[in-house]
Amino acid sequence: MNYDLEIQEWSKEQLYMARLIEKNRLSLNVGFNENIAGATLAYKTKLPISLHSGITKPINSLFDWKYKPGIFVGVEFRF
Fold first, then answer.
1. Per the CB 3.0–4.6 Å rule, which of 28, 29, 40, 70 could disulfide with 56?
2. What is the pLDDT of residue 78?
3. How many CA atoms lie within 13 A of 8 on its CB side?
4. Helix (H) / strand (E) containing 38
5. Between β-strands 26-32 and 16-23, what pairing exists: parallel, antiparallel or unpaired?
6. Count of domains forming the chain
7. Tens digits of per-residue pLDDT, 48-74?
8. CA dihedral sign, ordered 36, 11, 55, 67
9. Does an H or E element contain 31, and which?
10. CA nearest 30: which of 62, 61, 56?
11. 16 or 79, which is more confident?
């Protein structure tokens, strides 16, 4: 789920994620889809699930520093 601070609305998003750094149960990830790009911190649980939290920004205003970033919370199922 992504909360856009500019328009103050929630939206369902699926991001293609890449893990940059992993240490024990925490990892730093970056991801994108056709609309937004994001960076998350993930916590790997004992179950095959990771919990993500981070920030997002629309791709068309990625380098527009006046545009507020969004808040991302999500779940990753590992197989």
1. 70
2. 84
3. 0
4. strand 36-44
5. antiparallel
6. 1
7. 999 999 999 999 999 998 999 999 999
8. positive
9. strand 26-32
10. 56
11. 16
Length of the chain (residues): 79
29: β partners: 19, 40
Closest of 34, 29, 28, 40 to residue 14, by C-alpha? 34
Of 61, 57, 22, nearest to 42 by C-alpha is: 22
Q: DSSP code of 64?
A: -
Please give the residue range of the domain that contains residue 12: 2-77
Averaged pLDDT for residues 2-31: 94
pTM of the predicted structure, to 2 decimals: 0.85
What average pLDDT does range 5-18 have in this prediction? 92
